[in-house]
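Good morning C.,

I know you're traveling, so I'll keep this short. The sequence:
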Amino acid sequence: MNTKRIYGAGLGLRRELIPELKTHVPSAIDFFEIAPENWIDLGGATGRDLRQFSERFPIVCHGLSLSLGGPAPLDEMFLKRVKSFLDQHRIPLYTEHLSYCSDDGHLYDLLPIPFTQEAVHYVAARIRRTQDILERRIAVENASYYVGSPVADMSELEFISAVLEEADCLLHLDVNNIYVNSVNHKYDPVTFLHALPGERIAYIHTAGHFVEAEDLIVDTHGADVIDPVWDLLEETYQSFGVFPTLLERDFNIPPLQELVKEVEHIAQLQQRFSQPRYSKNEHAKKG
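The tokens, ready to paste straight into the viewer:
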């Protein structure tokens, strides 16, 4: 099976944007991202729309519900459906949040995993099993969080690095989440960024957020990207190289022509530092 390589600047394939995108896809958009939960098993006109885009453009799948840190057993039946979906649409990369969102049922929120060595082993084993089922390396995203765990025995940075190493997976780097956490938990975002294992970066998100108070930012994906987050993306490219980068916008979605301005800004930064490239850990099948 031939998959399409992900490169350049991307945008989420929101259904409200599809009518306009079917007429014209702006040249700044190199790829699209979808949540597989919102598209698996859909037929009819919606399924045909997705096929139209997946035949023309590379697509990334960014999962919402796998709950890598959750106490419930890993949903292997769901993962088998995801694998079929990835194969069907020739999607090379599947990413998930380094968080949890379920217990006895789905909690409809992304909650932080306690930063403990026990949790490292638990989450890493679930990631390895996920990769075995999907027959692909996945990337896990550094998550935003608002309250620290009282049982933590390591820092956020140590936790992320340990999970990536033990699971031997890739990093889905969200620069907005770094900025949000740096304000909420009072650390320097550039120092944090530089300490990440850059050789594992596969994919990047940038987004806007909501300022609740001077010392509290909420990761909403519902506003324009601010200058400090753009600066952090620029620092990422300068430090680690240029990677496929997506503009996340999930709420308060403006007209496409407004969104594209931010996608164009991503592309301009990429061109400034180098041609888009893969990390040395390509999104190849395992084995």
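Safe travels,
E.
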